[in-house]
Amino acid sequence: MKKIFRYYGITGLIILMCATTAVAALEVQIIGDKLSLHADRVPLKDILQRMSDMGITIRIDPQMNPEISASFEARDIRKGLASILRPFDHVLIWDTVEIPPDRIFRLAEIQIFRSGKEELMKPLGKKSALSIGRNPKDGSLFVRNEILLKLGPGMRFPEFKKLLKRIRGTVVDRNAAVGIYKVRLPENADIPAIADLLTKQPGIAKAEPNYAYPISVPYRSLDPYISDDTAVRLPAGKIPIAVLDTGLMPDSDLGEWVLASLDAMNPDDPISDDLGHGTQMALIAAGLVRPYGISSSPSAEGETHNPVIPIRAFDDNGFTSNFGIMRSVDFALKNGARVM
């Protein structure tokens, strides 16, 4: 009885930590298959953008953007969306997150169109940067409203679903290699405090924020006489090299040297690079561009090039996260990378 009381007591504290204290002009929340929405004459695309920020792919006719007024709590997401999308047609696409021995269904994509005009749909732009918070206690950076969970051997599927409901969390992704689940919590949740409390829950082996890290500022030598011997040399030959950076520009001309590519920030999108740093690093790794300090003369064995696996692991502000790095490393290994 004592353990049960403590369990529910901690859960109650977590719910309070997830509660918002102010009423916003637009509130959108998805927990499992339930949608809560409060909007007063808000453009439809603003509502859909909030859903896109939650990891849901949105495709819509660009000409469709009526003002929406609605207010409801925890409505079945199918009925909730139908009520605000009339008179347009729409399609919901679901995928699954495996939680052995079962699975959880999550909404993956929403398509909105006029009847017979599906070809006019365009992707609604996803956010290009992570929302970063800072723990005031230790200064660590983390992705807001996200937490990473590793289940203990005693956690059964029904119990995990109940825990998710109590903390108002939604499983949005899973790293199968290490058994880590990425869970989205309500806006303004106190992530560090919730992680500490969840670690004490029965059946939870580990709970922590989705820690974030900025890209390193490259060192620039002031020595104009840097020699070939001091410059870093890349391996010669056809060794697959994964480049975890800011991505790859479509017009990079790497062509046949790209084995595979991934946008780890938005895995459903083709890789891109708005900053250019990742493209430069991929060209150097492939041997198509020589870094400062390397002789421009061919080697005795002739010019060699390496196949590359460009991965957009950092956002447009130069931040990455623990979960993003895990996804990037998994992709690199699955595609044969021998150097990262």
Description of the molecule:
There is one protein chain. With 340 residues, this protein is an alpha+beta fold. The protein has three domains: 17-123, no CATH class; 132-214, Alpha-Beta Plaits, CATH 3.30.70.80; 241-334, no CATH class. The chain has seven helices and 16 strands. It has helices at 2-18, 44-53, 77-85, 157-167, 191-199, 277-286, 322-334; strands at residues 26-31, 34-43, 57-60, 67-76, 89-99, 102-113, 122-123, 132-134, 141-151, 170-175, 180-184, 204-214, 241-245, 262-263, 308-312, 319-321. Strands 8, 9, 10, 11, 12 and 16 form a six-stranded antiparallel β-sheet that branches. A four-stranded mixed β-sheet has the order 5-6-3-7, covered by helices on one side. Strand 5 and strand 6 (102-113) form a beta hairpin. It is globular, with a radius of gyration of 23 Å. 31% of the residues are buried.
Gross morphology is globular
The main β sheet shows up as: 6 strands, antiparallel
**Number of structurally distinct domains:** 3
SS-derived structural category: alpha+beta
Assembly type of the shown chains?
Answer: single chain
Write down how many β-strands occur, each being a DSSP E stretch of 2 or more residues. 16
How do the SSEs run, as a string of H and E?
Answer: HEEHEEHEEEEEHEEHEEEHEEH
Unreliable residue runs = 1-9
Question: Could you estimate the helical fraction of the residues in percent?
Answer: 10-25%
N→C terminal distance: 51 Å
Fraction in beta strands: 25-35%
What Rg is obtained from the alpha carbons, in whole angstroms?
23 Å
**Tally of contiguous helical segments:** 7
Mean pLDDT over all positions: 85
